[in-house]
Amino acid sequence: MRIFIAIQLPDKLKEYLSSIQERLKKTGADVKWVEPHNIHLTLKFLGEIEKKKLEDIIKIIERIAKNKKEFTIQLSSLGAFPKIDFPRVIWIGINKGQDQTKQIVQELEEGLFQIGIPKEKRPFLSHITIGRVRSSLNRKELASEIGSLQTNLENNKLEFVAKGITLFKSILTPQGPIYEALKEINLATI
User: Fold this and answer.
1) HEC string of 94-117?
2) Domain boundaries defined on the chain
3) Which residue is catalytic, options 4, 17, 39, 40?
4) Which of 37, 110, 123, 180 is the most exposed place for a label (fewest CB within 10 A)?
5) Which CATH architecture has domain 2-186?
6) H or E stretch including 93?
7) For the chain, what percent of residues have pLDDT higher than 90?
8) Is position 40 annotated as part of the catalytic site?
9) What band does 34 get if pLDDT is binned at 50, 70 and 90?
10) Given 20, 90, 117, 127, the catalytic residue
């Protein structure tokens, strides 16, 4: 089964990110937008995993979560990989909470490597994907709107408390992925 590990976002924040998507959609760019109910902060994408490994994965997440306190995540920026002028992935960055998410990811990478799951080769950058660009259609307009919305996001000081780590199953369908929470493991309370 296809799985990933993430931090869930509160519904109010997903609604706000959906409003950003709506503004970006007006550019007419060819983007596959993440459904608002599916928006999350990915910690580790594992891909296809045998069902028998799930218990080991859950134990690793539980071990990490019991030693981590709930923490605040603040959204800081709107951007694109590899760069705004040539966007492939449109994302929301975070500033507050960056160190905590990196620490969790580092421990996940180490623990999962012990059970045969390869480490990610790229350095981890905490971000929330909101869209994937499919073609260069209206790319300049999209880049311009991303630039104009950056200040808006920075000024709003949007934040939430990360309360847990969730193991998700991703089911691919022609209409888009369906995410099913397999297990949510709470972090230690503040």
Assistant:
1) ECCCHHHHHHHHHHHHHHHHHCCC
2) 2-186
3) 40
4) 123
5) Alpha-Beta Complex (3.90)
6) strand 86-94
7) 86
8) yes
9) very high
10) 127
